[in-house]
């Protein structure tokens, strides 16, 4: 159906956009920007993600295809809701945001991969991820070679942003060097996969 194709197209570009802004948050210098820029990027993504989840759920209900959703993930969201209601007196805005982002991760990003498996959008995303991480690692290695390191305090964070080579540890351009290292490994695996696939095609 045309509607299904259009929805796949919209969800595909949302998948790429959401992945890209998450990449930005992993880069240390991005945190130095005023918070309004982060808000401008993430709040529309949050609202659009929830709207797409609702539309997808309505279509699944009409087609009697609710089994496609992972019931353990639904139960997890339910537990979060119950916990939030039980602790309502301590605040609710942060809990709402947390639940919203978990909904997007579970029923938009994960579900997109489950529903459509490998497709054009995954290829675009992997190329963007590989390019961004290659450039970030290149800068990080350059800072290591010249032994550059700096701490920059920011108002809304307890810890300063650490960049470069500090305390005998390479932070590079990443907000979390451990996260940067894990994604770097994933990018290497993706590169090997494409090399092997390319050789088989030829």
Kindly report the average pLDDT value: 90
Secondary structure tally: strands: 3
Task: Give the strand content.
Answer: 5-15%
State the helix count: 6
Helix content: over 70%
Runs in which pLDDT lies below 50 for 5 or more consecutive residues are none
Tell me what you see in this structure.
This protein is mainly alpha-helical and about 200 residues long. It has 2 domains: about 1-115; about 120-200, no CATH class. The protein is about 70% helix and about 5% strand. It contains 6 helices and 3 strands; from the N terminus they run αααααβββα. It has helices at about 1-25, 35-60, 70-85, 95-115, 120-145, 175-200; strands at about 150, 160-165, 170. A 3-stranded antiparallel sheet has the order 1-2-3. α1 (about 1-25) packs across α4 (about 95-115). The chain is globular, with a radius of gyration of 20 Å.
Compact overview of the structure:
The protein has 202 residues and is mainly alpha-helical. The chain has helices spanning 2-26, 35-62, 71-86, 93-116, 120-145, 177-201; strands at residues 149-152, 161-166, 169-172. The chain has a 3-stranded antiparallel sheet with strand order 1-2-3.
Keywords:
mainly alpha, 2 domains, 7% strand, globular, membrane
Write the layout of secondary structure elements.
Elements (H helix, E strand, L loop, with lengths): L1 H25 L8 H28 L8 H16 L6 H24 L3 H26 L3 E4 L8 E6 L2 E4 L4 H25 L1
Antiparallel strand pairs: 1-2, 2-3
Helix pairs in contact: 1-2, 1-4, 1-5, 2-4, 3-4, 5-6
């Amino acid at each position: 159906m045309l509607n299904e194709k259009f929805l796949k197209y919209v969800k595909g570009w949302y998948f790429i956009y959401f992945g890209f802004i998450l990449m930005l948050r992993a880069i240390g210098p991005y945190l130095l920007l005023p918070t309004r820029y982060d808000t401008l990027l993430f709040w529309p993504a949050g609202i659009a993600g929830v709207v797409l989840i609702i539309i997808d759920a309505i279509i699944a209900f009409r087609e009697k295809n609710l089994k496609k959703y992972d019931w353990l993930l639904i139960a997890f969201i339910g537990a979060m809701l119950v916990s939030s209601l039980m602790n309502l007196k301590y605040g609710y805005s942060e809990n709402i945001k947390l639940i919203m982002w978990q909904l997007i991760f579970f029923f938009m990003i994960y579900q997109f991969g489950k529903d459509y498996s490998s497709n054009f959008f995954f290829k675009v995303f992997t190329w963007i991820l590989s390019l961004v991480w290659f450039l970030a690692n290149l800068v990080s290695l350059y800072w290591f070679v010249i032994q550059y390191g700096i701490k920059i305090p920011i108002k809304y964070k307890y810890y300063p942003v650490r960049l470069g080579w500090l305390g005998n540890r390479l932070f590079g351009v990443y907000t979390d060097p451990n996260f940067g290292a894990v994604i770097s490994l994933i990018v290497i695996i993706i590169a090997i996969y494409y090399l092997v696939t390319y050789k088989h095609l030829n």
